[in-house]
Amino acid sequence: MSFLIDMLSRLTDVYKKDPNSNVGKVIKILADELDLLKTTFDRIEEWKDVDRAEGIVLDDMGVNIGQPRGAATDEIYRVLLRSKVARNFSDGTINTIIRVISIAVNANPSEIHIKELYNDSSSPEPAAIGLIQIPLRKLNEVGMSPKQFAQIVQKTVAAGVRVASIELAGTFSFSSQPTTIENDDSAGFSDLTESIGGYLGAAFSGTDEPLPV
To answer: Is the pTM value of this prediction over 0.90?
Structure first.
């Protein structure tokens, strides 16, 4: 309810409670200003959330936790802010790394997989991890490249541990039968509106601008 309607409803019955009446027009002058104030305060409250804040408000959040923006867009900067907070509580274990990454990119932890390479069958390497799988759509949504994502992961692992490889999983696949249409809107070709359809791994848009992590 706007302030105008609320204020008019509080008038005694000796006054005409019509917004177009003389008393209504006078009250509207004050009510419009109160509506603007309420909109501003509502935005201040919403922008306390890193997922809703924009521009300099995000910069202020970064100052509070020691995370500079650099040349990052608002979308990528939100990832940096979330990951910075989560990294502060990281103990370097695999489960913690998965939790930090899931918080940073708003993914479900079950969608992220990490393999330790010390016992890899083809090229074992001590103090290294690889095959980090994450839905590519999460990076596409913010325009982040694999190299930029690798920077965040490298800052999350324990000192001396190398991030050897990253695998970005797509969702595109063909039908299991030549004459069968699979009932999965996220796997096949898109329609004309591109509202359904899968995407290829490593098919994304973004830059390799170094991130200040």
So the answer is: no
